[in-house]
User: Fold these one by one.
Assistant:
Number 1:
Amino acid sequence: MPETPEQRMLRDVGAKQERMLRARQARKGNLSAVAILGVVGWSVVLPTLAGVALGVWLDQRWPGRISWSITLLVTGLVAGCVNAWLRIREDR
């Protein structure tokens, strides 16, 4: 039995809709990966820089045997890495 025009139109629209959804998901996947890399990078950089800035300020105000700059740099780096790890785990 030959296909009616309505059936052909429904089949064509369905096929186009599937192609559109596949293209949108592929584009979202690539952009999502780039966005996650940016967020992860900033979540490590910002606490590290904040720790260094606070450490330099503390070293100028209260110099001591232990360098606040290095201590807070490492603390900020560790906090940033933990933050990035949690973010990546959440996005999975």
Note: The chain has one domain: 5-91.
Number 2:
Amino acid sequence: MSIAMSEHTTRAFDSDLRELTSMLAEMGGHTEKQIIEAIEALSKRDPNHGKRVISADAALDALQREIEQKAISTIATRQPMAVDLREIVAILRIANDLERIGDLAKNIGKRVIGISGENVPRKAMRGVRSMATLVLRQLQDVLNAFAAKDSAIALGAWNRDEEIDSIYTSLFREVLTYMMEDPGMMGFGIHLLFCAKNIERMGDHTTNIAEAVYFMVEGKPLADERRKADGTSVLSIAFNA
């Protein structure tokens, strides 16, 4: 390959990568908004707000498909190697996790429709909002880690997932107590627990993104096994209590 051809290929790849990075940033911003809107709908028990969250998920799905198609085309035509290939693969992995976070926000929107008009214990709702705030911070950190190619930021976010799990476990026990003391809260309680579980799963997807960023930068996977503080299971308790 001539020097001119090599330089052209490099410039073309850099252009593709900038486009993919821009698309991923757009998808990340949309995902953050979906989380915020889903928690707002849940806080207000507003079914119309919940429906808007459900409808907005289509845009995330479309972005994920566009990124996937562009990434595959770039790999096929540019044949990137080493760190360049890792960056494309990381973008694919991150887009997939962002799409899954969007699905979880949509699930919360669906639950809101089922609990509209219900009275929510303030302490339980504070716990849900605290979880969501931590997830948003983690998501912002891992996206910033990708943009800055900073494995230390990614590792810090990865290690904080245990805090989200801990709040989820505490919230789970609290809502379960409400349900046992007042059987009339059973339906609402199950909806709220599934919402909390969706938020906890969002945290898991942010740690997946952190792992993708770490591998992209360092060229090796995180060696430590992720710690999980969540010792509960919504389904096992709901159906076996």
Note: The chain has one domain: 7-235.
Number 3:
Amino acid sequence: MAYDGPGGALFKNNKKTSDRHPDLTGFVELDGDAAQSIVDQLNRGVQHPKLDVSGWTKVSQKGNKFISLSAKKPWEKGGQMSSQNFQAPEPQHNDMDDSIPF
């Protein structure tokens, strides 16, 4: 899946054969601010760094549903709002979701 910037997507897992397998699989790409936030959190001793994640249900050009993702540096008190002023990345044509019905 091609994006103009960082983002991600989740697709139905058509290879699921047991309840232990995930319902959805996909990927997330991080921008420099999100990646640096993880490093900063680890350097401060945070054992489980966090990002703000948002998702939008979308439909591919071929009519298949998927979830478009955005992962951002967490909102911090003091003015920087990473999760309040954003838009979902718009996916380009994706051949990966051709056979993924929801």
Note: Residues 8-72 form one domain.
